[in-house]
Amino acid sequence: MRAVAPRSLLPLVFAGLAGLPSTAAAEMDAGPFAEGSIRISAIVGVAQQIDNTAFILGAGAGYYIVDGLELGLEGEYWINSDPSISKISPNARYVLWFVPVLKPYVGAFYRHLFVGAPFDDMDSLGGRAGAFWVSGGGSYFGGGVVHEIYVKGCEGDDCSETYPEIVLSFSF
After folding, report:
1. Residue pLDDT, tens place only, 102-120
2. What does 58-94 look like in DSSP terms, one character per residue?
3. Lower CB count within 10 Å: N or C terminus of the chain?
């Protein structure tokens, strides 16, 4: 019996469920989600505030500590925002890299919001799920849904939100 590294077990289980030989699963390439890969991302968006539209600019980076498991950090700055808003967010994401064509992902994050006076800073916890399509050359495109719950700085019944995300990343 051949010994299998722990990070290789999930693809072997998937291969068994899909009826693939275990040797095929062991030889699969994790592509841009491979251990040691680095991801860089640009964040661009728009948010509607009470009486104005804010433009969101930011950047992110991540490192795959094992095949499919990324630890990352993202930051945002909201332009034309009143009050001013900046965000910093450490996160973790697992990509099911061994799934053919669309690669499902799940993730979790903590986010700290630096909010301008007279408001207090806020903290949130969240999760995300979606799928990536690898376009070759280390880049991938995808989308999903994010659910975020504000755990500090929010009062009342409106302390969570769910919103879509679109992702275009480059890995090297």
Report:
1. 999 999 999 999 999 888 9
2. EEEEEEEEETTEEEEEEEEEEET-SS-EEEEEEEEEE
3. N
User: Residue 33 is encoded by which pair of tokens?
Assistant: 């989600």
Triad 45, 112, 71: Cα angle to 5°: 80
21 preceded by cis ω (within 30°)? Answer: no
Strand spans (E) along 27-156: 38-48, 53-66, 69-79, 85-95, 102-115, 122-136, 139-152
Residues 6+ apart with CB under 8 A from 84: 78, 114, 115, 116
Q: Say if pTM beats, i.e. exceeds, 0.85.
A: no
Domains of the chain by start residue, with CATH = 32-171 (2.40.160.20)
Quick check: 125 and 85 in contact, CB under 8 A?
no
Nearest to 78, CA basis, from 39, 113, 51: 113
Helix (H) or strand (E) holding 12: helix 9-18
In this structure, the number of other CB atoms found within 10 A of the CB of residue 157 comes to 6
- Output Rg (C-alpha) for the chain, integer angstroms: 19
